[in-house]
């Protein structure tokens, strides 16, 4: 008998949003020092997908469930391996990460080997995962298992079972008082968004191409040292990254004579327990918005203070749990209508509820083995995004390196504009720390 898992409320919401918009696919890439064996890599992919239930699922309709869908777990999913080269990688990425993953066939991810795109003679392995059953940390955990399987090492058992993790997420949020506080906060934010829509990044480039591009940047050692070790007291790395993004949007738009009254950044929040923060292949990342206006962006330090105040509130009030709050209040019977109604609401509100851009920070990636060495030669990550939120920045810190990926819609930037925006962002980060 096929094992099934019900959709969580968050998975169902993302599923319907994705179906109404562009694919929500996560980018994750690992570089090696030496050439990799394709056959061995395919076997490692299959072993890892079979080890993690959510890495080998397919969507099945089930009218008897609140969301109308369940996941069927495949015992031995087949994971075909795509191929490209370093010279063709930039042209390969838009289709690889941009094409929708068919969730009715397992697994909900694809992989590719880029010859010569690693360090020295090494290669690069690309993972494209659907954001419906998997978040950035889940993709990281999957990639870790693929590396261990390639090396012939035993795969880690999760600290908690998938069923336990999913039950914990559906209960995420805690007390009734917290729920009421979040309800007031959510209503206030919705009112603000409808009255004063978030700023839009000024487009730069002459293209109507609906695909997405990727600009990779490794931060200079001096900036990394300040960001990781010498930033202001009480300020997290995420606070600094967010404050710099707000400053970069304001600077960019000012240079293009575009308004920036209210900048709103979407921020995924890892809802896993602290003791298993980097474990579990699944989707446990609701989101919040972090906002600034002209007053709170008067100086880089003022911007940092405004961002820190909001992120502290997220941590103390579990603000990201508003997603499960809303569906729990409305009840399971109304959940499918809410999921289907959100895309309609976004369209009818002229996307006023869509943030300016998105920032996703994986943090300091722990214990990630390389395919052919104690650690990978490079780690890159970026979150999905959708127009008019035409830019998403992903940050991964590993082994003392901080690497950014700026994912951009070709409708938003061309390649040169993406490079210049990244320059603006890095300069703003230097001003913050």
Descriptive report:
There is one protein chain. This protein has helices at about 10-20, 40-50, 90-100, 135-150, 160-170, 175-195, 220-230, 235-255, 300-315, 320-330, 335-350, 415-430; strands at about 5, 25-30, 55-60, 70-75, 80-85, 110-115, 125-130, 210-220, 260-270, 285-295, 355-365, 380, 390-400, 400-410. By secondary structure, the chain is α+β, with helices and mostly antiparallel strands. It has two domains: about 5-165, 2-Layer Sandwich (Chloramphenicol Acetyltransferase), CATH 3.30.559; about 175-430, 2-Layer Sandwich (Chloramphenicol Acetyltransferase), CATH 3.30.559. The chain has a six-stranded mixed β-sheet, with helices on both faces. Strand 13 and strand 14 form a beta hairpin. Helix 2 crosses helix 4 (about 135-150). The longest helix has 20 residues, at about 175-195. It is globular. The mean pLDDT is about 85.
């Amino acid at each position: 008998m096929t094992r099934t898992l019900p959709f969580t409320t968050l998975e169902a919401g993302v599923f319907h949003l994705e179906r109404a918009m562009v694919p929500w696919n996560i980018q994750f890439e690992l570089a090696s020092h030496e050439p990799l064996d394709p056959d061995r890599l395919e076997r490692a992919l299959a072993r890892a997908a079979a080890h993690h239930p959510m890495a080998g699922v397919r969507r099945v309709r089930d009218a008897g469930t609140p969301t109308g869908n369940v996941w069927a777990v495949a015992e031995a999913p087949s994971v075909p391996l795509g191929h490209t080269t370093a010279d063709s990688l930039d042209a390969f990425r838009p289709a690889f990460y941009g094409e929708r993953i068919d969730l009715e066939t397992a697994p909900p991810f694809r992989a590719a080997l880029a010859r010569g795109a690693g360090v020295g003679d090494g290669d690069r392995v690309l993972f494209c995962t659907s954001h419906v059953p998997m978040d950035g940390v889940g993709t990281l955990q999957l990639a870790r298992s693929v590396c261990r399987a390639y090396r012939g090492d035993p795969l880690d058992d999760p600290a908690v079972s998938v069923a336990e993790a999913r039950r914990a997420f559906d209960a995420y949020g805690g007390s009734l008082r917290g729920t009421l506080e979040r309800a007031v906060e959510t209503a206030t934010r919705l009112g603000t968004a409808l009255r004063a829509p978030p700023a839009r990044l000024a487009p730069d480039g002459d293209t109507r191409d609906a695909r997405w591009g990727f600009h990779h940047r490794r931060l200079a050692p001096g900036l990394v040292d300040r960001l990781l070790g010498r930033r202001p007291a009480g300020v997290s790395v995420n606070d600094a990254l967010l404050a710099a993004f707000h400053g970069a949007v304001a600077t960019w738009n000012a240079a293009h004579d575009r308004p920036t009254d209210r900048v709103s950044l979407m921020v995924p929040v890892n809802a896993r327990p602290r003791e298993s923060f980097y474990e579990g292949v699944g989707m446990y990342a609701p989101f919040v918005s972090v906002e600034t206006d002209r007053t709170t962006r008067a100086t880089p330090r003022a911007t940092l203070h405004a961002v820190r105040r909001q992120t502290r509130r997220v941590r103390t009030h579990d603000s990201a749990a508003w997603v499960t709050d809303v569906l729990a209040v409305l009840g399971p019977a109304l959940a499918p209508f809410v999921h289907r109604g959100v895309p309609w609401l976004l369209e009818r509100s002229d996307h006023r509820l869509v943030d300016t851009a998105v920032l996703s920070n994986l943090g300091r990636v722990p214990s990630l083995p390389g395919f052919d060495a104690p650690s990978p030669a490079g780690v890159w990550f970026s979150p999905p995004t959708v127009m008019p939120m035409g830019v998403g920045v992903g940050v991964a810190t590993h082994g003392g390196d901080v690497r950014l990926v700026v994912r951009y819609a070709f409708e938003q930037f061309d390649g040169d504009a993406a490079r210049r925006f990244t320059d603006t962002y890095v300069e703003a980060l230097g001003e913050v720390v």
